[in-house]
Amino acid sequence: MNNILSTKTAKSAAGRFCALLIAGCLSSVAFAQASDPAAAPVTHADKKAAKQQAKADKKAAVAQAKADKEKTEAQADADKASAEANLKDAKKQ
After folding, report:
1. Is 34 in the same domain as 57?
2. Do 32 and 38 touch, CB atoms closer than 8 A?
3. What parts of the chain have a pLDDT lower than 50?
């Protein structure tokens, strides 16, 4: 009889433990959703800041593209000058 009673107690303790574990997981998920800043309503200031950031990002991308183009053109000019110098040296020999 004691053996049956201890088995029931163990099962109920395991059941309680599982229930507490599930409740803990659910409460942490609820807390994470409640504290998520992305879930907060977007204010006018947030929209304005996002718009300004988008403009700044676009300007930076354009500036980077121009710099890349200038670098590519300068490298092409240097390669051309080097090829001409090599050709001139080859003709001298």
Report:
1. no
2. no
3. 1-6, 10
CA–CA dist 73, 62 (Å, integer): 17
Q: What is the distance between the alpha carbons of residues 33 and 54, in angstroms, rounded to a whole number?
A: 27
The C-alpha atoms of residue 68 and residue 2 are separated, in whole angstroms, by 82
**Containing domain of residue 3, as a range?**
1-40
Residue type, 21: L
Q: Are residues 34 and 62 in the same domain?
A: no
Tens of pLDDT, residues 41-67: 789 899 999 999 999 999 999 999 999
Question: Distance (Å, rounded) from C-alpha 76 to C-alpha 85?
Answer: 14
**Dist. CA 80–CA 74, nearest whole Å:** 10
